[in-house]
């Protein structure tokens, strides 16, 4: 795969991270999160909210770093390759979590939510594939 094509695929990955931010921001309403959190002790509720914010911050960072450094990532610069490998592993683990840990069936109550769920899973497949390709590309350089 040439560098230009891989750069484009990485730019798409960066934009998909922003889409995941949007999906994450819409999730509390879809699952009535605030009602569920209200039943928890204050420490656990705050802990969850901090984790939720850190995940959002990480997604924004992953997306921005990918977008602004896509060229270096596509060229196989060693540090960029290491970052790509990290993201490939991160998203592979997230894909397995989506498949085997989270049961979203009770929340897939309409066609829009079912379509969104399948779209998210496509993103969770796309991201590790693209990052593994980028990590692999510069291996011989």
Structure description:
By secondary structure, this protein is mainly alpha-helical. It has one domain. The protein contains six helices and no strands. The protein starts with a helix and ends with a helix. The model has no long low-confidence stretch (mean pLDDT 93).
List the helices and strands and how they pair.
Elements: H1 3-30, H2 33-38, H3 42-68, H4 70-75, H5 78-100, H6 111-137
Helix pairs in contact: 1-3, 1-6, 5-6
What attributes characterize this protein structure?
141 residues; mainly alpha; 0% strand; elongated
Sum this structure up briefly.
The chain is mostly helical. The protein has 6 helices and no strands.
Distance between the termini: 15 Å
Largest pleated sheet: none
Q: What's the Cα radius of gyration?
A: 17 Å
Structural class: mainly alpha
Number of continuous helical runs:
6
Report the average pLDDT across residues. 93
Low-confidence stretches: none
Number of DSSP strand runs: 0
Estimate the helix proportion, in percent. Answer: over 70%
